[in-house]
Design a protein that fits this description.
This protein is α+β, with helices and mostly antiparallel strands. It has 8 helices and 15 strands. Helices cover 30% and strands 25% of the residues. GO terms for molecular function: RNA binding.
Amino acid sequence: MDVLRPTLISIGGRVYRKNIVQEQVQQQEEEEDFYTGPSDCADEPCDAFVVEETEKGFQCRVAVPSPFYKYIIGKKGETKKRLETETRTSISIPKPGVEGEIVITGQQRGGVISARTRIDVLLDSFRKKQPFTHFLSFALNQPVIQEKFLQFKEEVLEKCSQDHGVSSSLFQNPAKLHLTLGTLVLLNEQEIQRACDLLQECKEDFVDQITGGKPLSVEVAGVEYMNDDPAMMDVLYAKVHMKDGSDKLQVIADQLVERFVASGLMLREWDRVKLHATVMNTLFRKDPSAEERSSTVTGKSSFKERESFNGRNILKLFENFSFGEVRLDAVLLSQRYSSDASGYYGTAGRLLLH
């Protein structure tokens, strides 16, 4: 059925079929092969990317973060050799650790386009396997919220500590309370700058119009869980809603993710952004700085090792618990596994709402 219904990969608005190569199973971790159309690429869009004409033929440049070079080279250089042979091109890759561009040259324009397309598909595949490095967030670590969160923690441990799996190690660091809009894999300064620039474009294109240039007043109240069985929870989160009853926060979140997904900087995880502030998470047992990334390859092994907790009583006793009100004044490009002076995540960029 994989042959009849191959995996489809969308890159830059174009859809490709992933080709399974059984005889190269032992190299699956280092390289993958893809079908990208006829060998002469006659049906490839000419304006998909810039191909320059040179004295010796044609040339195309592609900016690639240095950690990805090894995937284009492949085991013992086999991926690069195969790409060059099948597309009749020459592929020049910078030295390991040196940020730069991969340069594809060839006598036929179609061959250069084919090589570039295959490299794009390879990069997209391997990017999806990388642990995320940054995420878009709203900070919820204002003093009033932190104080109420610590009260919540104290009362939960006082009233529910006898319930299976409930312990102090499950609770979020109050200095890192936040809403996550979406996660990103940014592997060099150029990609971080692209994300920062895109935030500013979003501010000009739609955010200012939605907010009217004012912070968003929200209330953090009530708790909810992520899976279907409250007796076996992995994540408990606080709910967030606009004080004025509008959907401005949801609209901004959805449109930001839509723009970042379209740019290729973010993977789509949900049809709509699930606005939630994690307060308890079984990932915190082993890693207090852990961040959830649901439905991704990198997160699956973590779920197997997690000891769920019985949250029935917590839901019953704290269903309407109020964590306070707060004014959200910025969308932050937050860096995973980092801290600033306040204890919140390090900030690589921001979109001011006012």
